[in-house]
């Protein structure tokens, strides 16, 4: 019988390149009793090969699985945020992993429900943006409290690991993923005597609910993004965001804490 802990699935944008480039890694894995699957369904380790964008896609396309470990292998010049391994050094890293006890790191995700019937998870962020050249307006509620009315280009709601992505470009804070929370940052809010928003990013705890209610104007459909994928829904009345119970598990390597990644990437 196959060992339930030894089933690997590799996710990459280009299958042929994936097989060719990862051949030495596949060989090491097979020598150590691991099986490489063609489908993620029964895998207990899902490895993305590419960049952060590929990792986000791997997690999304495999359904934010909690019963397996995710790992990112960078196939670009640098190792990026979700990629703890580089394609040129992955064989030595694997040998290390197979010899030692691996430590698991957990990344919080957010759950978004759009108009009661569509629900999905995001690992980086949920973004809601005007799709036209004009501003759009939405009411922001924290739990049952009406908080503010936003007018501008849009809002970005990010997870702690997403805090170093889109959120950071909007001057949001970089948040330690050990803190269970999510952050709201503005895209060009229009502030005047009629419309006023807080004007700075704010962080909500894991037992808060954020509700974004659109003031209705049939012509101005917003664009909604779940990480690097656009949602196909055109019309939306409200989006409700909470921190999800689902967490993404990844392999934690030595000298590769979140803050070491922040330092490596930005400093
Ligand atoms: P992309 O537009 O091709 O690349 C966006 C950049 O963000 C890439 O350099 C990517 O790294 C990096 N990145 C992604 N997730 C990150 C994270 N958690 N921390 C630090 N850097 C991160 O799109 P993509 O590669 O598919 O990534 C999608 C993400 O791009 C979205 O989730 C959003 O966060 C971000 N984004 C940012 C802006 C902005 O800053 N103005 C606008 C739109 C989207 P890699 O090169 O390793 O992929």
TrEMBL record:
Q: List, alphabetically, the SUPFAM superfamilies matched.
A: NAD kinase/diacylglycerol kinase-like
**Stored InterPro entries:** ATP-NAD_kinase_N (IPR017438), ATP-NAD_kinase_PpnK-typ_C (IPR017437), NAD/diacylglycerol_kinase_sf (IPR016064), NADK (IPR002504)
Q: Which Pfam families match?
A: NAD_kinase_C
- Catalytic reaction equation(s): NAD(+) + ATP = ADP + NADP(+) + H(+)
Q: Where in the cell is it found?
A: Cytoplasm
- Can you tell which superkingdom this protein's organism belongs to? Bacteria
Q: What is its EC number?
A: 2.7.1.23
Identify which top EC class this enzyme belongs to: transferase
- Keyword line: ATP-binding, Cytoplasm, Kinase, NAD, NADP, Nucleotide-binding, Transferase
Q: Which residues bind NAD(+)?
A: 52-53, 124-125, 151, 153, 164-169, 188
Physiological role: Involved in the regulation of the intracellular balance of NAD and NADP, and is a key enzyme in the biosynthesis of NADP. Catalyzes specifically the phosphorylation on 2'-hydroxyl of the adenosine moiety of NAD to yield NADP.
* Family membership: Belongs to the NAD kinase family.
Q: What is this protein called?
A: NAD kinase
Species of provenance: Bacillus bruguierae
Source species taxonomy: Bacteria, Bacillati, Bacillota, Bacilli, Bacillales
